[in-house]
Amino acid sequence: MMKEKTDSVVLENIYKAAVRLKDVSVQTPLSVNNNLSAVYEANIQFKREDLQRVRSYKIRGAYNKMATLSKETLSRGVVCASAGNHAQGVAFACNTMKVKGTIFMPLPTPGQKLEQVKMFGGEYVEVVLYGDTFDEAKDAALKFCSDHEGVFIHPFDDPAIIEGQATVGLEILAQSDEPIDYLFVPVGGGGLAAGVCSVFNRLSPDTKVIGVEPSTAASLQKAMEKGEPVLVEKISRFVDGAAVQKVGDLTFEICKDILYDVATIEEGMVCGTILSLYNKDAIVVEPAGALSVSALEKYKDEIKGKNVVCVISGSNNDITRMEEIKEKALLYAGLKHYFLVKFPQRPGALKTFVIDVLGPDDDITYFEYTQKNSKEKGIAVVGIALKKNEDFDPLLYKMKKYDFFVNYLNNDPSLMNLLI
């Protein structure tokens, strides 16, 4: 049973939220994924929140929160901070309810999300770009809110927000023909996880709910270790929909006693999932939207023969990021490698490298070389793509045998950041 202090999110209010959202949010499909069901020998279903009007579940919480406020309160204008999806939900609600909104977003926010916010909000929304992270944008939003007596719409740590997100859980239970054994939910600030936990704890307590977050922004895992929310000083912004430095106080209190487990996923694995879903199922997801599916591999032994649901949280992905996504996926899979290579400054050196060092399926994908007349040998940066990761050791052996090898760069983050 949930502890009394978490009862600020109650089932009755979640049902009320579902009524408010009836004509606003879409009842997204719960559909079987045949490819992954075969791979994991389980019944794998996707809850397709990427098919929402704003292409993420965030519309549920944002609209529900604003719908609980009085007209007098809303007349002061609303303020929010978001890396993208919550901003779109608030923008949609502002336009629908004819309420002025000011939305703070981090400077590195993908352009696609920024344009969507402006499109959904129309004349009712002003976007302010501030800071490098969500948390910096949030601090600026709170100050603006205080200075202008606005109403802050928190992206996750608010009972009405959590109750709106919880309607995802109600729909999953209504749509599933069989009891659900495992439910994988992406985690940023924890609003969605807290919401579905609140539902499943009461209506399907045997379901194992697993929160999934990026290893480079593991604020929930850190909170679990410390026993309270803590600020993670350095995070990566790549999985922007889940890049939160500190999980919510209320969301943590709800999740800590109900979540079966917390899984952290490396960025390269997320990227591989994005490409796989696109290539095999024609499903477009953003990095945060791929988290739940990425976690299946970690639990492959547990989920065999079970009914499993993955919440696909969003599809707001910028197409300009696809090259970076592909690169990270190849690096993670051990199929892309970068080297410093020394080439004798004589005709035919490159030909020797290609014929005697590279394997039949190896491909040079990056080559940067500057000839220097004062040296007998020039250093080049070479990127090589492999068909199989087993081809790496033979490549490295021949590179050293023919005296081309200088250094391997994949394990040097500072140098790799210059290449990717």
Which of globular, elongated, flat, extended, rod-shaped describes the shape?
A: globular
| Separation of the first and last Cα atoms | 47 Å
- Overall average residue pLDDT: 93
Helix content: 40-55%
Biggest β-sheet: count, sense, barrel? Answer: 6 strands, mixed
User: What is the assembly state of the chains in this entry?
Assistant: single chain
Q: Strand-residue fraction?
A: 15-25%
Return residue spans where pLDDT drops below 50 for at least 5 consecutive residues: 1-6
**What structural class do the secondary elements suggest?**
alpha/beta
* DSSP summary: helix tally: 18
Query: Largest sheet, order of strands side by side?
Result: 1-2-10-7-8-9
Number of strands: 14
CA radius of gyration is 24 Å
Folded structure, characterized:
The chain is of the alpha/beta class and 420 residues long. 42% of the residues lie in helices and 18% in strands. It contains 18 helices and 14 strands. Strand 3, helix 5 (85-97) and strand 4 (101-105) form a beta-alpha-beta unit. The longest helix has 17 residues, at 159-175.
